[in-house]
User: Fold these one by one.
Assistant:
Number 1:
Amino acid sequence: MATLLYTNGQNSMNIKWTTEDKQFVRENASKVKDKDLAVELSMRNQRIVSLDSIRKLRQRLGIIKKRGRGRCELEES
């Protein structure tokens, strides 16, 4: 029988975003890659924050980046 293992016993699908986390993403999404946002929030929160979770959070906040590798500019609304 297979056993599911989660890092430090945490399931990354149940991340609760704090107001500070959301504000950090709002302020830095136009200047920093999602990958780097994930690294910074991982260090701040002492848990693994994936690139996909950052993308989903950013999209839920209505922040849409331009397409292309390594681009940080936001789409015009």
Note: The first helix runs from residue 19 to 28.
Number 2:
Amino acid sequence: MGRNTVRIQFEGSDGERYTIKLEGNISKDKVSRIIDMYDLLAKRNESSDLLQDDTTYSQLRRFVAEEFTFKKFTSDQLQEAFENRYHHPMKLAAVSTYLSRMNNVGEVSRVKRGRKWIYRLPTPSEVESQGSDLQRRIQFSKIIDR
């Protein structure tokens, strides 16, 4: 290939964006090495994810998976249910931000109804159809959370 610029951008679950910019003589091999590096980091951190998953975001993810498995919900409904269970106030803006991030990595799906977003967990077939790209985004967001 000739002289090019390639930008690879990842978004963490907390909304941070990470950009890797390659300039010059870029080959498929070089881009492949970056993806391999990402894969190594993801595998290396899988076991530590299980031990250190105690952030508000991870609590909210677990809560959604437990309480809203077969239900559609809004951010207000999630906020109310979460506060009732944990007896800890949470701003609606924070809940909306977390849900937006979950949507970005495919952990929830949403549709707009009037002025509100209606969320739901994706079905297993939807997760399968999104394939490894979804898994990479989820794994990368877990790495970024550290």
Note: The beta strands are 3-11, 17-25, 109-113, 116-120.
Number 3:
Amino acid sequence: MNNPDLDEWFATQILVHEAALSRYLQRTWHSASEVPDLRQEVYVRVYEHAAKTRPDNPKAFLFASARNLIADRVRRERIVSIDYSQDLDALRVLVDEQTPERRLSARQELRRLAAALDQLSDDCRDVIWLRRIQGLSQREAARQLGMPEGTVESHMSRGLKALLKAVFQRDGTDPGNGVEGLGRESENE
């Protein structure tokens, strides 16, 4: 399919994020040698979708496609062939089951994280989102937010400390307790 308009859109809206996409894939996939293949597969998915309908937010769509690809790959790796299912005991494969306790614990940690994120200052939350979720470098995040790199580093440090404290608190308090005003002291800077 030869579509110069689509090719130009792809080059200006998708390929410009190649470094961030590569960093994201390296962080989330267990085999660094497969990252170039994964990146190409993400590009194919995005290009084929854009040939039908262009996404409103190309960068967000690119990273959502990468997340979905990783999820698909993980699911595929977990599938056990029926031919081998009879030999599981012989292979001594351990099954890491999700117990109700582990699910509850994970939900509680997620609630604490959400509450803590809600309590962060807007700047701290934006910095953490760009650096940890979208995988931008400190320089890229500073440029996008229009602030000095040192300020980005300060917000990142303060925000992560507050999130760690809130998520991993062990005193049995309500998930929302102890997170009031997290990272807000920076608002006066």
Note: Residues 4-78 form a domain with the Rna Polymerase Sigma Factor; Chain: A fold (CATH 1.10.1740).
